[in-house]
UniProtKB/TrEMBL annotation:
InterPro entries: IMPase (IPR033942), Inositol_monoP_metal-BS (IPR020583), Inositol_monophosphatase-like (IPR000760), Inositol_monophosphatase_CS (IPR020550). Belongs to the inositol monophosphatase superfamily. It catalyses: a myo-inositol phosphate + H2O = myo-inositol + phosphate. The keyword Magnesium applies. This is Inositol-1-monophosphatase. It is an enzyme of class 3 (hydrolase). The lineage of its organism: Bacteria, Bacillati, Actinomycetota, Actinomycetes, Kitasatosporales. Keywords: Hydrolase, Magnesium, Metal-binding. PANTHER family: INOSITOL MONOPHOSPHATASE, INOSITOL-1-MONOPHOSPHATASE-RELATED. The keyword Lyase does not apply.
Amino acid sequence: TDPTDPLHQELLALAQEAARRAGALLRDGRPADLAVAATKSSPIDVVTEMDIAAEKLITDLISEHRPDDGFLGEEGASTEGTSGIRWVIDPLDGTVNYLYGLPTWSVSIAAEQDGDTVVGVVAAPMRGETFHAVRGGGARATGAWEGERELACRPAPPLAEALVSTGFNYVSEVRSHQAEVARKLIPLLRDIRRSGSAAVDLCDVASGRLDGYFERGLNAWDLAAGDLIAREAGALTGGRPGERPGRDLAIAGTPGVFEPLQRLLEDFGAWHD
Ligand code: 2AM
Ligand code: CA
Ligand code: CA
Ligand code: CA
């Protein structure tokens, strides 16, 4: 694949602009009393309004430039399109963090061409960072902290020194099982993190800030952009052995951590109760 393909460059520029604007909307539009509301009334409704507004901003902007593209978005965007391009969008990944005022949340936008992800953008406005990748062209990030840079995942440490992030589902029976898997893993790893944004975790693997990541129960919009960014940075990604990342299980890791982590998750039956 040719990373300088003008279509892919056009899709990248559009995804970056949409992510920038949606990130600004979420950052500037967040009600100051949201975290207080979390302990009272119905804060989820307020967050849901922001989710929906951000998704609409993204799909409106893209449709204006590319009226024939399809969409799949967490907040309901679902159209086929006729151009062969479909956008896979999570307008706000890390909703619970956003609700509480924690900085780890993101806007995730991917473009698929005939079913394969060709562009991924993840903007994390409160970290001042945006990550992007074009298929075959590597992954890059821009940000105040580490500047503009090419991303490369870390050289593999022994599993016992690997820092691995995960997430927990919201279905209580699944959570207990996930806690059991984490209990078995903790003594075998350096430590475990739980950031609350799957898209940010995948970008942190790409950046060499994490050695691995796994989660169960995710949807296409959580994974699409971050998975391409991780792979273009040299990470391996997958699901159950032999499968692509999906609802049952999504795993990303630096080569050398990915396979032993996948094997352990298989041994611990991480994708079933
Ligand atoms: P969200 O913030 O967009 O809802 C954190 O572990 C990851 O799980 C995030 O990507 C989060 O996405 C996702 N998530 C949150 N609630 C979920 C649910 N009910 N089902 C599946 N995934 C969920
Ligand atoms: Ca999500
Ligand atoms: Ca979301
Ligand atoms: Ca959600």
